[in-house]
Amino acid sequence: MGPGTEGVMMAPESTATEKTPEESLRETMPAPILETRDLSIFYGKNEAVKKVSLPVPERRITAIIGPSGCGKSTLLRALNRMNEFIADVRMEGEVLYRGHNLYGKNVDPVEVRARIGMVFQKPNPFPKTIFQNVAWGPHINGLVPRRDLPELVERSLRQAGLWDEVKERLGESGLSLSGGQQQRLCIARALAMQPEIILMDEPASALDPVSTARIEDLLFELRERYTIVIVTHNMQQAARVSDYTAFMDLGVMEEFGETDQVFTRPRHERTEDYVTGRFG
Amino acid sequence: MTASEWRGVPNLVRRHRQSLWLRRLFKALTWLGVVLLAILLYRIARQGAGWVDWDFLTSFPSRFPVRAGIKSALAGTIWLIGLTALISIPVGVAAAVYLEEFSRPGRLKTFIEINIANLAGVPSIVYGILGLAIFVRGIALGRSVLAGALTMSLLILPVIIIAAREAIKAVPQSLRQGAMALGATRWQTVRHHVLPGALPGILTGVILALSRAIGETAPLIMIGALSYVAFVPEGPMDGFTALPIQIFNWTSRPQQEFHGLAAGGIIVLLVVLLLMNAAAVAIRHRFQRRR
Hints:
Number of domains of chain B: 2
Oligomer: heterodimer
Radius of gyration of chain B: 24 Å
Largest sheet of chain B: none
Strand order of the largest sheet of chain A: 7-8-9-4-10-11
Largest sheet of chain A: 6 strands, mixed
């Protein structure tokens, strides 16, 4: 599990002394709330993520792009310890949340997942009512007393831009909604946990263009209060919504920088090939 | 159709003919089963219908066919199946939940899985011997309805576990992930999402298993359930008899009247079975509507 945690957010990057652009980026970028250090993830013998050091700046949207199978989803799921349900997964390196290793000995993965929200590729509302979908997480975690749940549900649904569409039908099944609405319900469900960080794994890839646009609008509204990491294979989407972009290829993080820079002045040839559509 | 202008699909006529004949064959086989069952039911109904009345249900067995009834056997079967359900459903579902949701892959798990699969195929008489050795004599429960229910539970546990595991497996993984991503523990995920989703399938398995238990005779005879009982069990430690034993007893007598009684007993057994199935369907329906 690598060396112990320093508890320092802006630890000097001794290995990157020759790369001045990365150092200057570190200076302009907000302090990372979440950060991976030399993170490697293996499925059996296959190394899906190779020594990735990704900073996730606080209250910004960070996009992870790259071709299919490049390890971007695996990397994302490592950030809230969701890889642990897959048999035969092994990890090296660290994931630091405000300097604390999320994989430390006395860290409970349930607590990690309660504090770092996640939205999945395919909308996966529970086969329960709309109200229960949003209220369940806070309820089982004892975040608010039962009588405050209706208020929390309304607030979360409003934040997810779904309230006006469902306020008359909170007792209906979450599965009765359209695909785009279901995904916003899942976002509301994550928001109800009052997380600081929300991880999104291609949240719009199963949706039509109109629903996708709504999700992207929603991301803009959420960025002021939340730190968001979004995995996407849609480069236009990454360019539109994110502040920072990481480009991954074959398990390696080839490039990380401000989204503008990555898309207009990529530092690596491979990144340029990808963002200009020459492969992927 | 052999549109030669087109590229031409080879063997189309032959493939259609094959499809048609197989369709006819499958249909015939389906009907064969239905018809055989109908004949069986008809014969039993004709033979036994005259014997089934209120007196038949409320009288104890007797040497005289006119006075004989199945009160003790019916009560014994209800006791037996009730206790069996109470024992086997919690144990079976818990085992299935453990194997599917909690256990880690490894040799021990494989060992347990192989054993359960094999146990499902063990002849019921073997369970009878086991029940006799362990429950009747080993822990000295005697020939009680509890010993019978424990033996029956052993017999149907593999079926319940296998059915419940399949039902649990069928719950989409995305649901578990959604719940876990909200900070739910394994148990909370199982309790609120997996079990409700798997319930219809589990119920189907439970009903199939209990239906098997209700008709089993061999293990009961093995553990020494009585065949002439002129009382109704009042507690789990009382002696008992059951419908299939009573039916078996009657069919083995030479007098024609007793065969009628046996047919009447079969009708009662089938009705109990149908009621159980109906109850399961009702519960399942109610549960599915709530979601």
